[in-house]
Design goal:
This protein is mainly beta. 0% of the residues lie in helices and 13% in strands. The strands form 2 sheets. The protein has a two-stranded antiparallel sheet with strand order 1-2. The chain has a two-stranded antiparallel sheet with strand order 3-4. It is flat, with a radius of gyration of 15 Å. The N and C termini lie far apart (35 Å). 0% of the residues are buried.
């Protein structure tokens, strides 16, 4: 079992955001408080606009597959 498999419950301070990396099981993101931590609102300069690339588990849950059904979707 790796560090990212079971993480604590986080309480994000007011005016901050919790950022989750694009590779949940292997990303240094807000879960690593000593390196990234919570991101203050003033550090956010844009918003997600479109899903560029998507990978998910295959139907059997044994591997990964390219998520063509989400490719190019506009984020609302």
């Amino acid at each position: 079992m790796d560090f990212y498999d079971n993480t604590n419950v986080y309480t994000v301070p007011s005016g901050h955001f919790f950022m989750l990396g694009d590779n949940r099981d292997n990303s240094t993101d807000s879960r690593v408080l000593s390196q990234i931590g919570y991101v203050p609102l003033e550090n956010i300069i844009g918003r997600a606009g479109m899903i560029y690339f998507s990978v998910g588990s295959d139907a059997a849950g044994t591997g990964s597959s390219f998520g063509t059904e989400r490719l190019g979707l506009i984020v609302r």
